[in-house]
Write the structure tokens for this entry.
Amino acid sequence: MELRDEILRENSKEHTEALAAWVGGNPKRLAQLVDLFLHDEYRVVQRAAWILSYVGDKHPRLMAPHLAAMVDRMGHPGIPVAVKRNVVRILRDMPVPEDLQGPVMNFCFQFLEDPKETVAVKAFSMTILGRLAKIYPDIRNEIVMLIEDHLREGATPGIRSRGMKTLKELAALKNGKVT
């Protein structure tokens, strides 16, 4: 199968899931998908990001060799929101490797501070930062402040839900109850 051609052939959830199943647990196929995600044109990158998120759900350990490049990609100017959304979605469900914790933390704070950022990117960023606060308790107050700002400013239901859950987890952490 020519993966790039297949990605461009159709854009639907069913097709995306089928391509993710084709990649499966195969490291060579995943490397091919990541290469398209990192280096191709906008439409291919956008669709590859969606496929990556499904592969990441099923095979998170396979993502490890590619995480540094994926995190780095989030810092490129003009990237599709699909890149940010799906990279933070993948990171939401897995431990952030120690060498990437600083950059991931910085990106997640940037996403939370950006009034134009999408709800999904902000919500996933809250989850990641909440987990990182267990390792870096000094960031807790900044996370709380940002979430409270969002809640005061009329947050969407998704931000309100994720924000309240993260605040609850951070309060438990402050009280010595690790969740």
Notes: The chain has a mean pLDDT of 92. The first helix runs from residue 3 to 9. The two ends are 44 Å apart (CA to CA).
